Amino acid sequence: MAHRLEITLKETLIDAEGEGIRRKARDYFDLALDRVRVVQVVTIDADLTDTQLETIRTEVFTNPVTQVSSFSPLDIPFDGCIWVGYRPGVKDNPGDTAVEAVSDVLGIQLGTGAAIYTSRRYCLTGTGLTAADMDKIAGELLANDIIQQWRVYLPSDWSSEEGIGLILPKVRLNHRPTVNTLSVDSDDLLRKLSDERNLALNANDIPVIRAYFQNPSVRADRKAVNLADPTDIELEYISQGRSDHCNHNSFRGKFRYVDAETGVAQIEDNLFKTYIEAPTLALKKRKKWVMSVLWDNAGVGRFDDDHFYVITGETHNSPSNMEAYGGAITGIVGVYRDPLGTGKGARLIMGGYGYCVGPRDYSGPLTPRLSPRRLLDGVIEGVKDGGNKSGIPTTFGQVVFHPGYLGKCLVYVTAVGMMPATAAGTPAHEKRTSPGELVIMCGGRVGKDGIHGVTVSSESFSATTPAGHVQIGDPYTQKKMHDFLLEARDEGLIQFITDNGGGGLSSSIGESARISNGCEIDLEKVPLKYDGLDQWEIWVSESQERMTVAIRPGDLARFMELSARHAVESTVIGRYTDSGKLHIRYEGVTCAYIDMDFLESGFPQWEFDAVWRSPVHRGLTEPVLGLPGNFSTLIEDMLARPNIASREWITRQYDHEVQGTSIIKPLVGVDRDVNSDAAVIRPVLTSEKGIAFSQALLPSYSAIDAYHMTTCTIDEAVRRVLAVGGDLDHIGGVDNFCWPDIQFHPQTNPDGPFKAAQLVRSCRALKETCLAYEIPLLSGKDSMYVDGHLPGKYGETHKVSAPETMQFSAISVVPDINRCVTMDIKMPGDLVYVIGVTRNELGGSEYYAHLGYTGLNVPRVRSSEFILLYRALAAAISQDLVASVHGVYAGGLGVHLALIAMGGGLGMSVDLSRVPAGGAVRTDQVLFSESAGRFLVSIDPARRSAFEALFDGLPVAVVGQVEEKPDLLIRGMDGDPVVDIPVQRLKASWKKTFGDLI
Amino acid sequence: MNKIKALVLTGYGLNCDIETAHACTLAGAEATRVHINALIDGSVRLGDFQLMVFIGGFSWGDDHGAGVIQSVRMKTHLGDEMQRFIRAGNLVLGICNGFQVLVNLGLLPALDGDYQQRRVALIHNDCGNFRDQWVQLRINSRSPCVFTRKMTRIELPVRHGEGKFYAESEVIAGLESGHQIVMQYAGKDGKPAHGRFPDNPNGSVRDIAGICDPTGRVFGLMPHPEADNHPASHPDWSRKRASDRHPGGHYHEKAAAPDSLSGIRMFQNAVDYFN
């Protein structure tokens, strides 16, 4: 018997959630609502007595001070009512915690099949509200049809006794788990089966797969376990293992790179080995602080004698593009499992984000699945819940708006962890599986969610993409598991640990069993959310919040005791062997039996044609622009550009100070509202050492050359960590490539070869710049299909490809956080310096974009020149000579002079003719050039000679000074005043773009 | 003399355990992080401690009202033991989610010495969102609160989505007459925020940020004192350093800048209470 409880705030209280919906309905749809009240609906599918129901109503679900509730529909007046609930099988986190609470307070275990579902009912009042209005609000504001269902009621439809009725989104499969075999009689047949089953096998892999299963000795081995043709679970395993997501086939591919102008051709064999692995291994030899790279879930660097830090970055683009909240929360919670699954496990200490989305106010002819505004709202909220509820500070982040991301958005999530140097006496960053150890699955249960997620993210988004791979992460379950596993680690119970992300058990066990060289898994032991999953589904499901752990049999009792203490489910599902076989059984019957080394042998390399046409060859030129007259307005308008304007509303939603480690916060300055260059935390509370962390994204430069996009992005990330006091001799990097499809197809991807050439050039730049700055790549990932097909005005579709994008993260150890510096100018009379040369480099700049141009002269990184400046600056910071340091990034000096003035709440007088310049540059060029390698520094005049001595012979100049009167005064190249604006006005312009958002 | 023993409650999605234990240690206490289930199964005894800290976090995901399910579990399994703990003259501190737990347990406000009844609530911020921000706080010198003795102003971060203090007006009157309103949001000038956002970040009635029981030994607050554990925790530290060393320089906000590490002083007051 099911019961439906409705709960709402007392009439007299402000309904903040309802108020937010009212505001959005007005802003998004121009719909004037008078009032929105939210009713929480808890539907309890369990046999409970009236007394029990009353107990849970009052003890668990109703706050007597603020709420009213009833098991019959609450009588709230409305002109329209919308009910929104999850579809069957979608993760309902509040429903799950309600089960825990009800069991606890009643002292009973709810029976199998019992469940609690949560949903919401929105009571809207407003004149003239139609069913169509409500459908719009439901579908475009309150719910996403991929994961949710809704019903709309007008007062005339509403029954005050029945209300919404009893809606139970229960999964009922009525399916007996079955293993099927697939024929390998011919390539065509296997290809056809692959398409039918959505296996996404690569055409070139099919002959290799067939050859394996037709090999007589393989067939003989298989006969012994009663297998012949491959089973569906085996082909799913191969499909997951060979997917671009897991295997990085593009980065390991062979590129025929041709320069179209010269005709010179080069073969690039394996970009990963050449441009990522080789330089990182070379640097690892020189940098003793590099502990572990290139094999584990995240890279490991030394923090101090007793601690190592761990870092990695991921993207979660396709799911976020379809269900922004679910995709983003799953992304951030998922990346947090990577450090937890690195070495024998790391505690999470920090997170970062990067969102690349279409213009928030896009109103053109294309129709993305979610409007850019709604998509961004959802992504922000997903990372908020995922990060905040994990208790991990989100210390740094960026947002880039570009129409190319209308096709598919990018959601970058980065995780930093910390581990002791040793765990129970053994090196904590090392791990292995050995024969005889038990395979344990910890955390969440397995359902149909996420099946084929990996293969889907390896394809472009289209109308036929299955929606079932969208999930909702559960930070609560994961936090419990995180705390438990770290205790188990400290007791020496963990021999090996890895996360279940893309590919589920198939990846985590498949990869970990390669170390011991075999495993035997009994799939029926895997705890399920509901019955009826096929064996292959259990094996590849990507249900979240799960880790796979190897422990010794003798440690089992203690491990389970700790697991129970932390209320975490852990299950032995098999053991590691050295049989050389991946052996999977279900109720004793073998359903998979494959050689462990099969995935590593004999598969053909992917091949790409890459054709480079230089910017000049492509016809790019500099725009012909006359000198502007009104620089004050121009600076204000530049500050208001979405890619420059304040995003305080996002930063403040993220807990950036939990764990008590925050030293340089994301917002700094006198009013604590201007962005810092980088974040600094003090992860070991008894130490004065810190970690500085920054990220950079400059996709607009790819319109000219992805080579320079890459060098400039790395240079910016480096300057950011240096600006706060990072150590140039200890910078670790994380590269996250997001690239449109690079495989040529005459109809569907005619410019694939150019995008492939951009990728080759980007990789070359990555290696060159990392070697120059001595940055080992501690971790990195690639996401290769950031394209979408969007409907246009007439029903036609348009392929929209994202600009070639690489996010670069830099992490550095700060020897003494007491020497850290912020970007805001601090004292009137301080001298303002520009460090580094400003050149006519406005190609791809915000200034050109503002005026509608791309240009040609993209900024270049001159690393050998820049390093001299960086060393001198690092010395000045460590000698405590500077009052403020800030890098000059997108928007150039004009924007960044304004930002440091806003940070300080003080004025500045600046003479542009004193700026170190390369070549002839005019006032607008000096103000808005985005030349790399530059900083703005302010110092106490008393420290002038000591400071300048460090920069002897380098391109550094005093360009002005800090003024008490809070006005920004700028003289142009000819000495005439060109800008005179109160700093408050600059700030108002900078804040107005997103100023009404909280 | 033996050190004061502080119990820092952990588990089920709570998350400020390490820095809260660190803050207790800085204050001279001996801090132990204890899982809720270790108290319930009796492997750790509450009676062995003098200070119990309910920390911040998202217990049970805060899915059914912040701190609600934790308080249900605590009340079901440890209700009597906590009552004894308080009656024995010990101290209880609830920070953020911990404050929410204390009010849901009825340990606060305990008007008329009734430590069972829910009389106040912490609900969704009026701004409609989670918010991380440092706030100015006025401390009521007439409050019996043990944790805020000799303190008048303090600046700490708030980090919550459900921190709006709400109670019926007669309850507020009761709190006022017993001086149980310990801490209120204020402007930069130290004057009451009078509900003004963002000085009052959540719309709390009477700008209330923290209250105590009539004895002053049970204290709950939304801001995070444990976050102020190093001179460089404060958002202005880098500005302050620049002005301090500047010859003849002055610091614009000097008048408004409270003592650093004032968060730790709350824990020290707790330790001093027993000495």
List keywords for this structure.
heterodimer; A: 998 residues; alpha+beta; Mth169, Chain: A; Phosphoribosyl-aminoimidazole Synthetase, Chain A, domain 2; 7-stranded mixed beta sheet; 29 helices; 43 strands; 32% helix; 25% strand; globular; B: 275 residues; alpha/beta; Rossmann fold; 9-stranded mixed beta sheet; two-stranded antiparallel ribbon; 7 helices; 11 strands; 27% helix; 21% strand
The proportion of residues in beta strands of chain A is: 25-35%
Main sheet characteristics of chain A: 7 strands, mixed
As for the CATH topology of the domain at 621-650 and 821-998 in chain A, it is: Phosphoribosyl-aminoimidazole Synthetase, Chain A, domain 2
**Mean model confidence by pLDDT of chain B:** 93
Question: What does this protein structure show overall?
Answer:
The complex is a heterodimer of chains A (998) and B (275). Helices cover 32% and strands 25% of the residues of chain A. In chain A, helix 23 links the parallel strand 30 and strand 31. Among the domains of chain A are: 156 residues, Phosphoribosylformylglycinamidine synthase subunit PurS (Mth169, Chain: A); 61 residues, no CATH class; 208 residues, PurM-like C-terminal domain (Phosphoribosyl-aminoimidazole Synthetase, Chain A, domain 2, Alpha-Beta Complex). Chain A has a seven-stranded mixed beta sheet, sandwiched between helices. In chain A, strands 37-40-35-41-38-42-43 form a seven-stranded mixed beta sheet, sandwiched between helices. Chain A has a six-stranded antiparallel beta sheet with strand order 3-1-2-5-4-6. With 998 residues, chain A is an alpha+beta fold. About 1% of the residues of chain A have low confidence. The two termini of chain A are 43 Å apart. The relative contact order of chain A is 0.10. Chain B is α/β, with parallel strands linked by helices. Chain B has a single domain, classed as Class I glutamine amidotransferase (GATase) domain (Rossmann fold). Chain B is 27% helix and 21% strand. Chain B is built from seven helices and eleven strands. In chain B, the strands form two sheets. In chain B, strands 2-1-3-4-11-10-9-6-7 form a nine-stranded mixed beta sheet. In chain B, strands 5-8 form a two-stranded antiparallel sheet. In chain B, helix 1 links the parallel strand 1 and strand 2. In chain B, helix 3 packs across helix 4. Chain B is globular, with a radius of gyration of 18 Å. The termini of chain B are close together. About 3% of the residues of chain B have low confidence.
